[in-house]
Amino acid sequence: MPRHRSVYVNSVVNSNVDSTIHVNSVIFPFMLLLRFLTVLSSKVMFVLPSNLSFIMK
To answer: What is the mean pLDDT of the chain?
Structure first.
């Protein structure tokens, strides 16, 4: 009886770990993309005004 219980607990823990890993693998690319976009937009905001002023001249 205790053995069955430990097997059950193990399977529950394993499934929880799997779902956590799955969630992380889903969220991680979004975090990377968000960070990339933030950096990109800050660069664009830095470069764009100088380009605009150059064009205006």
So the answer is: 80
